């Protein structure tokens, strides 16, 4: 029986999503629990995509197969009772055997949170502590240049991809009127390259600092050269917000 689960996790104490020989991972912790529930027959989970060390997820999606059918509510309770406190199964549904959590994705949304105000030691694992002002208007202008279908090689981590073409459906600033010091930037797209969001954020911060102009995004994309873009932003402020099918 194939199940689709919506999960949340605090990435602070993980070495990333993907299982490794050494190090604590989200995939490793979940597979250990599901294998136990599955009468100790190994269970391999498949996610919508990997997240890096210290990156968080609000609604990551995974699918997995179990040898017998469980009530989704009972399975959720069992899994959550065995998982560590920094991973939580929010929802479980039964899906067809042809469903795939990665290959059936229509879009993903990532958000990145930046504290422009005073340093907050309680949030330093969850919001990037920039602690200075940025030109948010110029950042918003730059985001519009990122929208659409482009070759995003300049914002990619490596040169080993057959295609760097991705589509960003919407890129925007989300304003929090209750806390004007928190700048949240959202990217909704059909897919993302490794470090793509963090590399775009690093470039947008430079634009907000006045080191670059918003229209420089056009030249950066056209260059297809990683060295032309800004630095990779820290992982702590990045969240996989949702996955759409």
Task: Kindly describe this structure.
The chain has 245 residues and is an alpha+beta fold. The protein folds into 2 domains: 2-95, Pseudouridine synthase I, catalytic domain, N-terminal subdomain (Alpha-Beta Plaits), CATH 3.30.70; 107-244, Alpha-Beta Plaits, CATH 3.30.70.660. 23% of the residues lie in helices and 28% in strands. The protein is built from 5 helices and 10 strands, in the order βαββαβββαβββααβ. The chain has helices at residues 26-37, 72-82, 136-146, 196-209, 216-223; strands at residues 2-9, 46-47, 56-65, 87-95, 107-115, 128-129, 148-151, 165-174, 182-189, 238-244. Strands 1, 2, 3, 4, 5, 6, 7, 8, 9 and 10 form a 10-stranded mixed sheet that branches. A hairpin with a 7-residue loop joins strand 8 (165-174) and strand 9 (182-189). Helix 3 (136-146) packs across helix 4.
List how many beta strands DSSP finds: 10
What does the radius of gyration come to?
Answer: 19 Å
Structural class, judged by helices and strands? alpha+beta
**Number of helical elements:** 5
The low-confidence runs, each spanning 5 or more residues with pLDDT under 50, are none
| Number of spatially distinct domains | 2
For the record, the CATH architecture of the largest domain stands as 2-Layer Sandwich
CATH fold node name of the largest domain: Alpha-Beta Plaits
Helix percentage range: 10-25%
Instruction: Report how far apart the termini are.
Output: 20 Å
CATH superfamily of the largest domain: Pseudouridine synthase I, catalytic domain, C-terminal subdomain
Overall outline: globular
Largest sheet: 10 strands, mixed
What is the H-and-E element order?
EHEEHEEEHEEEHHE
- Quote the beta fraction: 25-35%
Average pLDDT, to the nearest integer? 96
CATH class of the largest domain: Alpha Beta
């Amino acid at each position: 029986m194939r199940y689709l689960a919506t999960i949340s996790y605090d990435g602070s104490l993980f070495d990333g999503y993907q299982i490794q020989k050494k190090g604590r991972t989200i995939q490793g912790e979940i597979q250990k629990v599901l294998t136990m529930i599955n009468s100790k027959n190994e269970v391999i989970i498949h996610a919508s995509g990997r997240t890096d060390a210290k990156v968080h997820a609000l609604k990551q999606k995974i699918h997995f197969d179990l040898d017998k059918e469980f009530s989704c509510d009972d399975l959720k309770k069992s899994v959550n009772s065995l998982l560590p406190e920094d991973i939580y199964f929010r929802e479980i549904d039964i899906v067809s055997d042809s469903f795939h959590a990665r290959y059936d994705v229509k879009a993903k949304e990532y958000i990145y949170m930046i504290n422009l105000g005073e340093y907050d030691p309680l949030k330093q694992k969850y919001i990037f502590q920039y602690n200075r002002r940025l030109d948010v208007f110029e950042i918003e202008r730059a985001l519009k240049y990122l929208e659409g279908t482009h070759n995003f090689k300049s914002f990619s981590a490596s040169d080993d991809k057959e295609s760097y073409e991705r589509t960003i459906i919407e890129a925007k600033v989300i304003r929090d009127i209750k806390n004007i010091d928190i700048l949240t930037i959202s990217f909704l797209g059909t897919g993302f390259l490794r470090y793509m969001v963090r590399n775009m954020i690093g470039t947008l911060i430079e634009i907000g600092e006045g080191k670059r102009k918003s229209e420089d995004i056009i030249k950066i994309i056209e260059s297809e050269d990683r060295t032309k873009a800004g630095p990779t932003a820290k992982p702590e402020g990045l969240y996989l917000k949702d996955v759409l099918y």
